[in-house]
Amino acid sequence: MAPFEQVVARHGATVLRVCRAVVGPVDAEDAWSETFLAALRAYPELDEGANTEAWLVTIAHRKAIDLYRAGTRRAVPTDEVPEHGVLDRDPTAHDPVYAALRTLPDKQRLAVAYHHLGGLSHREVAQILGGTEAAARRASADGVKNLRTRLEAS
Amino acid sequence: MSELFPDGDEARTLARLHERLARAADRDALLDVGYRLVDSPVGPLLLAATEAGLVRVAFDGEVREDEVLQELAEQVGARVLAAPRRLDRAAAELEEYFAGRRRRFDVALDLRLARGFRRAVVEHLADIGYGRTASYSEVASLAGSPRAVRAVGTACALNPLPVVLPCHRVVRADGSLGQYAGGPERKRALLDLEQH
User: Fold this and answer.
1) Domains in chain B, please, with CATH?
2) Where's the Methylguanine DNA methyltransferase ribonuclease-like domain (chain B) (predicted)?
3) How far apart are CA A8 and CA A148, in angstroms?
């Protein structure tokens, strides 16, 4: 089994992008931290042949739901990004694509994030979101189409 | 969708998140092994520790960093993470040693990577005082098997904690240097350091 450090090195950036797309810039770092802490805890039980990235995105999905439920805090408009405690600029905070992504209906937003940012297959996306592979594929395609429309309109 | 992949300050953000993860992992006692790299006069050293203590010291170039981490993952546990704070004490003692201000190490050790006779050998290495040397057969006697001279050579070559457990002080009976896992130049450099 690979040392966990390698898992962080290989997938840390991808999970951060997914977190930013799914919970927004304010909660993204908390979601990333909770995802990797939970992954570290469960790592010894992960099957050798498992798709590590899909496993991490699945955990990130659960952590995002937890954060969403816990809070009252939700994906905020991009002009309300707090500066306190954030040492580095979140390049997605004022990125028009991420801003448009966050306005998509949940299912489309998550399907686009997990497929295009997380690199999951439509089948793996379906396992996370429920529903069929075809529905996950459609949600992702609709999401991209809506994204284009919104970006062209803006 | 290349516009969905901005890079920006991502490397720094990830470094900070990694640090936060290492702190939380330490707090929750989730790490099998924490490690860090330190500089030294004999080149970069990888230091690794379990909850019990320092478990591995490796010379850069002796084996590749990812090979050392892979070995630790297999032999100790896969939850291996760069966690510099866990190595603060060991790093400070090594710095004092290389500055000539420390003659023996007090940091807690975890000897699980040396088993059986190899363990008996490395446990006796610290009996050879700072600045002195002993022959392979003298160490064999110290470890309780006077005739196991060759096995002492193997145990020294596989010492998981070089420098801290001073296998560099074990030399041939004729006074010549003998082998060293970190290479003969490092062995000479460590012995020279201890003459000052």
Assistant:
1) 2-98 (3.30.160), 116-193 (1.10.10.10)
2) 35-111
3) 32
Rg (CA), chain A: 15
Active site residue B167: yes
**pLDDT tens digit string along A31-67?**
999 999 999 999 999 998 899 999 999 999 999 888 8
Q: What is the interface pTM, i.e. ipTM, of the complex?
A: 0.89
- Residue segments in chain B with a per-residue pLDDT below the cut of 70: 1-8
B14 in contact with chain A, both atoms CB, cutoff 8 A? yes
Cβ distance A37 to B78 less than 8 Å, yes or no, reads no
Nearest CA in chain A to B81: A5
pLDDT tens digit string along A79-110?
444 444 455 567 777 788 888 998 999 999 99
**Which one, of B102, B87, B113, B96, lies nearest residue B26 by Cα?**
B87
Q: Which domains does chain A have, with CATH numbers?
A: 4-82+92-153 (1.20.140)
Which one-letter amino acid corresponds to residue B89?
R
Give residue B153's identity as a one-letter amino acid code. Answer: G
Q: Do A3 and B70 touch (CB under 8 A)?
A: yes
